[in-house]
């Protein structure tokens, strides 16, 4: 019997989350899991609205943006067609690229982090990840990766902002270390080395 798994990948933009989601999915599939990979913001209606703010085609106050992310997160969990809760109940190991720590850090740079944590409480009650994996990359390195590989950048993707977001991630991990499982991995290395460390943690601490 395979354990139901819910794993969140966290990190600043360009830290390598989507790369690591793919590599982790391959390893889980290889070890016999059915895997469902997903991300936030979602491609559902609320996530699509949120993405249009990130792309700059729509404007909203930071508090409104935090509320939209929270609503999209609930849809991500509870959607009757492809919600994470449904997928877990069907026996999938679910890996998400971003979950509530992204809200704590990105929105915590603009407003009181405790308020952001409060409005996301429902998600923590519905589904807490077996582990939140933080890919730790210097903001300068992440920014170089973003600009090398893309013609456009999004709302939060400036060096100054990524520095603040990284600090807020670390602040949130410290604040919530009693109730959350957190694994910080050095992301300033080749993707396969990072993936190897993530797999060692998951196979050693969670699957064993
Ligand atoms: P994120 O999902 O966190 O924004 P990505 O996985 O999309 O990050 O990676 C951002 C860019 O950096 C991509 O072009 C990707 O190929 C590259 N990249 C990912 N991981 C590494 C790594 N460990 N070393 C160097 N480049 C990487």
Annotation keywords:
single chain, 208 residues, alpha/beta, Rossmann fold, 5-stranded parallel sheet, 5 strands, 55% helix, binds adenosine-5'-diphosphate
Output the structural class. alpha/beta
- Ligands present: adenosine-5'-diphosphate
Give the N-to-C terminal Cα separation. 12 Å
Poorly predicted parts: none
> What is CATH's topology name?
Rossmann fold
Shape type: globular
Q: How is the largest sheet built, in terms of strand order?
A: 2-3-1-4-5
Order of helices and strands: EHEHHHEHHHEHHEH
CATH superfamily annotation:
P-loop containing nucleotide triphosphate hydrolases
Count of helical regions: 10
* pLDDT averaged over residues: 96
| CATH architecture field | 3-Layer(aba) Sandwich
Please report the total strand number as a whole number: 5
Give the fraction of residues assigned to helices. 40-55%
What does this structure look like?
The structure is a single chain. With 208 residues, this protein is α/β, with parallel strands linked by helices. 55% of the residues lie in helices and 12% in strands. The chain has ten helices and five strands, in the order βαβαααβαααβααβα. The protein has a five-stranded parallel beta sheet. α1 crosses α10. The longest helix has 17 residues. The protein is globular, with a radius of gyration of 16 Å. The site of adenosine-5'-diphosphate has 13 residues, from α1, α8 and α10.
């Amino acid at each position: 019997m395979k354990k139901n798994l819910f794993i969140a990948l966290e990190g600043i933009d360009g830290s390598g989350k989507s790369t690591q989601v793919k590599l982790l999915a391959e390893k889980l599939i290889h070890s016999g899991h059915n895997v469902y990979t997903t991300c936030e913001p979602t491609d559902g209606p609320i996530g699509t609205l949120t993405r249009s703010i990130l792309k700059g085609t729509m404007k909203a106050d930071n508090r409104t943006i935090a509320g939209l992310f929270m609503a999209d997160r609930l849809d991500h969990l509870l959607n009757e067609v492809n919600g994470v809760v449904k997928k877990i109940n069907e026996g999938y190991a679910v890996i998400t690229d971003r979950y509530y720590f992204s809200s704590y850090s990105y929105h915590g740079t603009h407003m009181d982090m405790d308020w952001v944590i409060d409005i996301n409480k429902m998600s923590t009650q519905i589904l807490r990840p077996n582990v939140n994996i933080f890919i730790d990359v210097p903001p300068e390195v992440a920014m170089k990766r973003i600009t090398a590989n893309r013609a456009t950048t999004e709302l939060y993707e400036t060096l100054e902002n990524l520095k603040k977001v990284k600090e807020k991630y670390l602040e949130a991990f410290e604040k919530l270390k009693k109730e959350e499982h957190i694994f910080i991995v050095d992301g300033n290395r080749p993707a396969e080395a990072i993936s190897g460390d993530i797999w060692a943690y998951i196979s050693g601490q969670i699957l064993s």
